[in-house]
Specification:
The protein is 40% helix and 14% strand. The chain is α+β, with helices and mostly antiparallel strands. The termini are far apart.
């Protein structure tokens, strides 16, 4: 949770961020893998209407998550 708060403060997003250490949300959103494998690395940007605005999937380039999520959030603000 602390990492999400720091990220929000650094980028002044003003949007809540979710961490899912137990994998409950991963299962609901279909990114939980079977067995001991970690969930697929996916970032969801969800609008105030509770609809998914953007789903960002990348296993190798974590910067893609940040760049695309920030772009989606900026679009929501405008």
């Amino acid at each position: 949770m602390n990492r999400q708060r720091k990220f929000d403060e650094k980028h002044t997003l003003g949007f809540p961020l979710l961490s899912d250490p137990r994998g409950r949300v991963a299962r609901l959103f279909g990114v939980k893998r079977f067995g001991p494998l970690p969930p697929k690395r996916t970032t969801f940007v969800i609008g105030q209407d509770r609809r998914i605005v953007r789903a960002i999937c990348s296993e190798s380039d974590m910067a893609v998550h940040t760049d695309e999520a920030l772009a989606a959030l900026r679009e929501l603000r405008s």
